[in-house]
Amino acid sequence: MIKTISWKNNKVVFIDQRVLPAAEKYVTCASYRQVIAAIKNLTVRGAPAIGVAAAFAAALGALKLCDLTPDKYRQKFFAICEEINQARPTARNLAWALERMKKRFALVQDLPPRRITAELIKEAKCIYKEDIAINRKIGKNGARLIAHHDNILTHCNAGALATAGYGTALGVIRAAKAQGKKIHVYVDETRPVLQGARLTAWELKKEKIPFTLITDNMAGFLMSRRRIDKIIVGADRIAANGDTANKIGTYSLAVLAKEHGVPFYVAAPLSTIDVGIKSGEKIPIEERDTREVTRVQGRSIVPKGTKVYNPAFDVTPENYITAIVTEQGILKKPYIAAVRRAHQGVKN
Q1: Thinking of the domain 5-136, which architecture would CATH place it in?
Q2: In what order do the strands lie in the sheet with 151-154?
């Protein structure tokens, strides 16, 4: 299995997704601020992976607090968590993981500082392990939706690289292949950072899953020719009503899918669902450096002074989504009720 992120000798190690597929390199972070930088510069990306990275970052920060008084420890730890929380605004898993780390702190805050730190490291490792197990459950649940000889379109990268391991949308595809289903995947290149072309294609090649790379603007043509049977994507944040924020370009695919009668599925853990946000209108959308659009492999591709708008995500309204695949089962409309049941532990 691809090792996206790991905790080794009180350091956090990431596969460097900025240089894939040309090179397979690893980046080691010894401080929480180095992890923040890795999240911001896309060394690590994908909502579940960012959540695990945030938990590990909080644990790294706690390692430096062992000599503080209890009050100072609490004050500093919560300040570190807030600093990590600002790394990227759209991915729900980042805040979710930090909330969980703070809850763990509240349960152990009366212990000696070194014991508190040990408990926080243990909690971060649990989040990591649980993410892989959850992804496998998502894969198993979602594989029920995949038929023999399906041509599946996916957007961006929602594979092992976007999680602690295995993947969400690609986890479904992996599970379907493991069941012996013969499938083929169309991979959107995913401008402007080319996560599909660089990362999803790399993962599928490693897994020996047949795939074809297309540019983002070819998807509608393929649907019109009935060459796509299903679309499955990941998610960065899902509102309580099912509206879903994902990589820019997802909404366009969903509209095209509805027009052509192609099922459109979202695969994500429950930790990506933000029950505190009623609809997608309230999901914060990150805007990134304009150079992601104006430059390719370090070379400018536009006239000097060109104005650029670069939102990293868009929001797909729930009425375009056929179902949401989670570890608790396949959620169907109305999503508000389905999400409530899932969070209560009721399988869908």
Answers
A1: Up-down Bundle (1.20)
A2: 211-214, 184-188, 151-154, 230-233, 264-267, 323-326, 329-331
Strand, coil or helix: 329: strand
Q: Is the pLDDT of residue 279 over 90?
A: yes
Separation of CA 240 from chain center: 18
Whether residue 334 has a cis bond before it, omega within 30° of 0: yes
Phi, psi of 123 (to 5 degrees): -65, -40
Helix and strand numbers (H, E) in the chain are: 12, 16
Q: Label residue 9 left, alpha or beta by phi (over 0 means left) and psi (-120 to 50 means alpha).
A: left
Report helix, strand or coil for 195. helix
Domain residues of the chain, as ranges? 5-136, 145-343
CB atoms within 10 A of CB 27: 19
The pair phi, psi for residue 184, each rounded to 5°, is -135, 140
Asked whether residue 346 carries a pLDDT value surpassing 90, the answer given is: no
Q: Is 324 helix (H, G, I), strand (E, B) or coil?
A: strand
The burial of 263, by beta-carbon neighbours within 10 Å (0-12 exposed, 13-18 middle, 19 or more buried), is given as middle
Q: Which of 131, 150, 188, 236 is catalytic?
A: 236
List C-alpha distances in Å: 311 to 50, 230, 315: 18, 26, 11
Q: Which amino acid is at 108?
A: V
Tell me which of 1-5, 59-63, 154-158, 217-221 is least confident. 1-5
- Sorted by sequence, the CB contacts under 8 Å of residue 157 that are 6+ apart come out as 45, 46, 170, 190, 195, 196, 199, 200, 203, 234
Sheet holding 273-274, edge to edge: 273-274, 237-239, 244-247, 313-316
Model confidence pLDDT, tens digit, residues 193-237: 999 999 999 999 999 999 999 999 999 999 999 999 999 999 999
Average pLDDT over residues 129-145: 97
CATH topology for the 145-343 domain: Rossmann fold (3.40.50)
- Asked about 236 being catalytic, the answer comes back as yes
